[in-house]
Design brief:
9 strands; 3-stranded antiparallel beta sheet; alpha+beta; 52% helix; oxidoreductase; 4-stranded mixed beta sheet; 19 helices; Cytochrome p450; globular
Length: 501
Amino acid sequence: MAWIPSPIWWVVGLLAAVYFLFKRKFSYWKDRGIRHLEPKFPLGNLPWNRRSDLKDVFEKLYSLGRGVPFVGAYFILKPVVVATDLDFVKDVLVKDFQSFHGRGVHLNEKDDPISAHLFSLNGSKWKSLRMKLSPTFTSGKMKSMFPTIIDVSERFNEALTEFVKTNAEIDVKEVLACFGTDVIGRCAFGLEFNTLKNPDTEFRKYGRMVFEQMGGNTLKRTITQIPKLASLLRLTIFSKEVNDFFLGIVRQTIEHREKNNEKRNDFMDLLIDLKNHDTYDEERKIKLEKLTLEQVTAQAFVFFIAGFETSSTAMMFTLYELALNPDIQEKLRAEINTVSSKYEGRLTYEAIKEMVYLDQVINESLRKYPPAVALQRTAQEDYKPANTNVVIQKGTSVLIPAYEIHHDERFYPNPDKFDPDRFLPEVWKARHPMTFLSFGDGPRNCIGMRFGRLQSRVGLAMLLKNYRFEVSEKTPIPMEFSRRSLVLSPTNGMHLKVVKI
C-alpha cells in the first residue's frame, strides 16, 4: 500500500468533520418534525446573494406550508423560520411583538454611522428613536410638507414636458428616480436639484453609489446576514466617502438654518428640533437624550433611501400596469380631472385626499409588486407558537413572505390580474388584516408610510393629469425581476411611451 503523506490525512479529516457538521446542522428541522425544504451544501436554501431567486424559493416554501403556521429553511448553517399562516404572521408582527421586535440587521455605529438608522436599530435604542420620530409623520406634519412636494412636482412637470418633446419613449424608472430624488432632497436635506434637467448632480451620484454599495458583493451581502460575524469583522455597509458626504451635507444644512434662523416645515426642521431639545417618554416617565449629528444624519439618510427607492418603484409599477390596462388608466384620469376641477384645476391637499380610486390603484400596485419580497424579524426570546409543541429558539430569524401572501389565490383570486376594486373599503375590510404587507404591520411598520403614500399620490396625479402612458417595444412583457435590486424591480428599466395631453 502506497504511503500517504500526513497532511493529506489532515485535509481528509477536516473535510470529514465539516461534512458531518453540516449534516448535523442540516437535520435541525427534520429532528423537530417541521416541514422544510432540503438544504444544499454549503449555503442551505436561502440565496441571499440573488434576490429574484429568493422569491422563487419562498414560492416553494409557502406552498409547502399549507395548514401549518410555519416551515423551516436554512441560511448556511442557520435554521430560519418562514411564516405560512396569517394568524402566526399577526402574532409575530402585532400580538407578540415584544418577542420579535428586532430585525437582526447588521449595523456598525462607530465606523459606519449612517447605518445606525431606525430601520436597523434594535431594542431600547430603536424604541427611543421611534418614539422621538413618530410625531414627525403625523397627518398634520404631512400637510405642512405638502406645498414642498407640490412645488417639486410642478417643476418636474415643466422639465418632463420639454423632455418628452424629443423622447416619446422613456425609461420611467429613471424619470421617477429623478422625481424621488428631488422630493427627498427638498424634504430631508433642504436642497434643490431638479435632477431631470441636471441628472449629474453630486447628490444623484452619491444616491447611485449608495444603492451600489447596498447591493454590494456577494460575500459581503452574505456576511451581513450573520450579524455576530459581521460585527466581529467590523464590516461596514457604506464607504467612508459616502458617510462623509451625507454627514457633510447635514452639517452644512444645520449650520445654515441655525445661523439664519431658517424654517422650512420639512423633515430636516423636525430633526434639528430633536437635536436641540429634549423629548420625554410618557410611558417610562424618563427624559430622552437629544439626537447627535450622526443620529440626525442617519435618519435623514434612511428617509432618503426608503422614500426615494420604494416610492419611485411603486409609482413605476403603477404606470406599467396603467399602460397595460388603458381602461383603468382612463378611469383614474377621469377621477383626477373631476376632483381637481373642484379646486380650480389645482392639486391641493384636500383634492389628493378625495382621490379614492387613485388610492385603490396604488394599493393594487403595491399588492402585486410589494417592494420587499419578505419581512424579517428575530426572536428575542424562546417562543412557542400557538397550537404547536415547537419552540422557536432565541436568535432565530422569522421571514414573512409578503410576495407570496399577496399572490395567494385564497385571498386574491386571479392574483396576476391588476384589479383596483380589490381595495374597495368593504372588500378590503373582509380580508384578514395580514393579507397586505407592503408597509409591514404592528409597532415596527413603515414609519414613513404616510409620506410615501402622499409622494406617490401627488406624483401620479400630476403625471396622469398631463400625460398618457402606453406600452412600447421595449416594455418588459412579461415582467422580469432584477437579481441585484434591493427592492422588487425590473431587470432593464421600464420603457413606456409618454404622450402629452
